[in-house]
Design brief:
Rossmann fold; 6-stranded mixed beta sheet; single chain; alpha/beta
């Protein structure tokens, strides 16, 4: 896991105040990791403030009393934008990501804009982020204003698929993040 403090001074106007990335690939610093960070940076206009590579947590994910994992869950819930990324395993997201998501209570991500991202070896899995990961993020309270992103493993570092998705998704994500922030100021 990596903490970066971007602060508000270097943040471009109209971008989320805090950006988190959660990577559910069992391989540390994987293509999924790189793709998730690229998506977060291209959406927010700057690097993520928090990066959680679940491969680093190991058995701590199974220990419900582990305060480090609890702290990470709380940090994700406090973010404005959270990218959840996974490779496609057996036509779904990984068990590693499921272990982490299970630590997040129902509704705990209220006020967080969630973006589901999945990588896979074939376009046959292109609906996986939309049909499998996005509903789980909504169940735990995230607002998911755009379609989930599926990238072929060969496109993890960018390309026309990502560019086209960003053209459509970025205005929706930023509008949702801005609307949620305005709503919290009213409370």
């Amino acid at each position: 896991m990596t903490w970066r403090s971007a602060g508000t001074g270097g943040r471009p106007p109209g971008t989320p105040a805090s950006v988190a990335v959660v990577i559910g690939n069992p391989k540390p610093r994987s293509r999924t990791y790189q793709a998730a960070h690229l998506v977060a940076e291209r959406l927010a206009g700057r690097p993520a403030d928090l990066s959680v590579d679940l491969a680093d947590l190991g058995a701590a994910l199974l220990d419900w009393s582990d305060s480090g994992v609890t702290d990470l869950v709380e940090a994700i819930a406090a973010s404005d934008l959270a990218v959840f990324a996974s490779p496609t395993f057996k036509a779904s997201y990984t068990g590693l990501l499921k272990l982490f998501i299970d630590r997040i209570g129902g509704g705990a991500l209220a006020g967080v804009v969630g973006v589901p991202v999945m990588l896979g070896g074939h376009w046959q899995h292109a609906l996986a982020p939309e049909l499998l990961l996005k509903p789980v993020l909504v169940e735990i309270g995230a607002t998911c204003p755009t379609r989930g992103l599926f990238l072929l493993e060969t496109e993890y570092s960018g390309g026309p698929t990502l560019d086209g998705w960003l053209d459509r998704a970025r205005p929706q994500v930023l509008a949702a993040a801005s609307g949620l922030a305005r709503g919290s100021d009213l409370v």
